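Page 47, continued from p. 46.
Same chain as before, 228 aa.
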Amino acid sequence: MTVAPIVRLFRILCTVYAWEQCLYRKLFIYAPSRYFHVNSTISLIMPLPRLGALPMYSPRSHLSLLVALLLLLSVSPSHSAASILEDAVVKITDGDTIIVLDSDEVQHRVHIAGIDAPEKGQAFGNASRKRLTELVARKMVRVEFDKYNRYGRIVGKVWVRPPDCPTCRKTLDVGLAQIATGMAWWYRKYENEQSAEDQGRYEFAEQEAKAKREARIRTLLPAPSTLS
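Result:
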């Protein structure tokens, strides 16, 4: 879970606690005096210690349940604990989809979260698939996921060792690498499923890739004077 959800939970808890205190006093401050002992010195309302003095209904117990419910509901599924798949890539379907084989010889089709790449028949489809092959083919990857798409595929963030550092940990974000090389688009439709940090990184990488591609095209075009 990131810091933002924790701060949000803390604020909700503080707000509900303050509301609980207010409601509790409003409900019981005008109750029959036999239920309470008023200490005028410290201005507190205290329940009598004898059994049966307080009603069976207690707003505190109900409001405590409300607090717990709010805490559960305030945790977004996209930030909940992710499942981990850490196995070898045995096939690259296209520029944003891989097949991972686990230790039980079960294949898992994985769509790389946050990106969309050209299909095989589209322009740059083969180039995108080739680039992804260079990054992950026959390599161990780490897939962090908490979602399946409508086709039953895992949608997850994929990590691999950087190509220039075979002894490093899996620190290369494969989806981000595909965007940075201009081989995939940032999938803005599902940006709300990403952390704010990833949204910023993916958007910046896409802008940088576009700028590099436009600069490359300009260098390939003939000078305007030669066209006349």
